[in-house]
Design brief:
Layout lengths: L2 E5 L2 E4 L4 E8 L6 E8 L6 E6 L7 E2 L7 E6 L4 E6 L8 E9 L7 E2 L3 E6 L1
Parallel strand pairs: 2-11
Antiparallel strand pairs: 1-3, 3-8, 4-5, 4-9, 5-6, 7-8, 9-10, 9-11
């Protein structure tokens, strides 16, 4: 059973940076596409970024392009979301999720980590 554990959230000021980590256990990153989602209070969960199982091209929500990057360390089975130039509208609970190579939906989820950006 694949399990994901996020960490790295916190309270920061606008313009600051944070790096979120997602440790994946029960499987290797070469077998899973890992994505980051977020959910702000009163809003639906939205996709933020993903890195494919191949480690190839990453993909981002338009509003975070140029500010966020996603990477992975296969030796540590960990995926990172580097968030720079944070804005108050980035405030949300951030979740990492995984899906297998041929899966069409993300069926493994972490518990989430809170990111709060003050103005």
């Amino acid at each position: 059973q694949v399990q994901l554990v996020e960490s790295g959230g916190g309270l920061v000021q606008a313009g600051d940076s944070l790096r979120l980590s997602c440790i994946v256990s029960g499987g290797t990153l070469s077998s899973y596409t890992v994505a980051w989602f977020r959910q702000a209070p009163g809003k639906e969960r939205e996709f933020v970024a993903r890195i494919p199982w191949s480690g190839g091209s990453t993909y981002f929500l338009d509003s975070v392009k140029g500010r966020f990057t996603v990477s992975r360390d296969s030796a540590k089975n960990t995926v990172y979301l580097q968030m720079n130039s944070l804005k108050p509208e980035d405030t949300a609970v951030y979740y990492c999720a995984a899906r297998g190579r041929v899966a069409t939906s993300y069926n493994f989820w972490g518990q989430g980590t809170q990111v709060t950006v003050s103005s």
